Amino acid sequence: MSDKLVIKKLVNPWPDVKGYTFILPSVCVGNVGQLAMDLLISTLETVKIGILHHPALLPIVGYDPYNNKSTEISTAADLHLCKDKKVVLLQIRSPLIKVEKESFLKELSSWVSDCAFRSAIVLSSSHAQLRFDAQMIGSQFRYICNEFQHPDIDRLREVGGIEMEEREDDCGVKKRRLPGGGFALKFLTLSKIPTIVLTKFVDEGDNTNDALSVVSFLNNWAQYLESPKWKKPFSWKNLFGAPP
């Protein structure tokens, strides 16, 4: 792994995450993936364990978005751990710089592989206006998996998971596309472990309800909580600024 990706460890000893699931958002249309990560981090009993640094990440710093009494800060990329559910969550808060994006995704996928995660899940979304006729009705959720057999793929299909349909490109080649999905497909192809992109067709606007439906679908599949009551972080009060 290149020295470009640096992980600042905030806990000692560093947890052994072998066999855990790694979940991350793609910076996508409506920021649905990032909003969904907010809900997971707020609702599951998570501990912040690290900060990621890389030239691809536009640097940001702010208050703790999950606890208004905390003195902790938030950055462009924070790592959280839920030991009880064996999940590591990466929240990404800034877009990736284009010239460094591939380097970041390659190094991140190498780190994920080195950690011996059981699998990875990318939360994303796609432009609803670019659906074709067969996608206009029924479930608005789709998944795309990489070449490695995901251990829970059968369970995903049992709860209504539909694989993203193939489309022909301008050259007549059929492939699965994710317009508006950010870096999700790129990470999928680079990942060296079983990885699934979970996406929803959305329109851009107030996408908090889309995020709620994404985490509900994810939980129905992964069964992290029996009867979840998703906790909205207090920072969501400022999503659209003050009233006019």
TrEMBL record:
Pfam families: PAC2 (PF09754). InterPro entries: Proteasome_assmbl_chaperone_2, Proteasome_assmbl_chp_2_euk, PSMG2_sf. Belongs to the PSMG2 family. The gene is psmg2_0. GO terms for cellular component: cytosol; nucleus; proteasome complex. This is Proteasome assembly chaperone 2. Coiled coil: none annotated. It comes from the Eukaryota.
